Here is the input.
Amino acid sequence: MSNQLDQVKRRIRELREISGYSAAEAAQALDMDERAYSRCEEGGEDIPISLVYSVAGLYHVDTTDILSGKSPKLTTISVVRKGEGIMVERFAGYKYENIAYSFVHRTMEPMIVTLDPGGKKPELVMHGGQELNYCLSGQTRLIYDDSEVILAPGDSAYFDARFPHGQMAAGDEPASFLTVINE
Here is the structure.
């Protein structure tokens, strides 16, 4: 498990403890199985980004607090230069760069996602709100509910994120896309 993932898990556990929740109470508040919740705090498993959003909502903190350990400070404009976003690695071959991490009270989460070629079909996720995927380079295979679509550079998909979805590189080259999530 990466050091970054260890730190995220530690922050989630600390938020729970500071808030006076037991693991069972936190799992119930997040509407998930207690064992699954405990694995997210302690085990070697990945933490879905949707869980990070849910935990942030439960404890009234920003996702940046959980992902980086730092609180956002900016309230009117945030400029993030190329390559200077907060990098988040969910699992091998799938990287996020949060490009609005320093803005307080965001209503959207814009991220650049980079997908390595040759990956296996991703675990599909669901979360509240809506999501936009805009392909920047390579080809992105968007798996949505019971269908799949290939996005080429300049193509986009906007969808209800409450349905199962995931992305992977299509073809032999890396793919990247801008995703904007509004929960």
Summary: Helices lie at 3-18, 23-29, 34-42, 49-59, 63-68. The beta strands are 86-91, 94-98, 109-115, 130-137, 140-144, 147-151, 156-160, 165-169, 175-182. The chain has two domains: 3-68, 107-182. The domain at 3-68 is CATH 1.10.260.40 (434 Repressor (Amino-terminal Domain)).
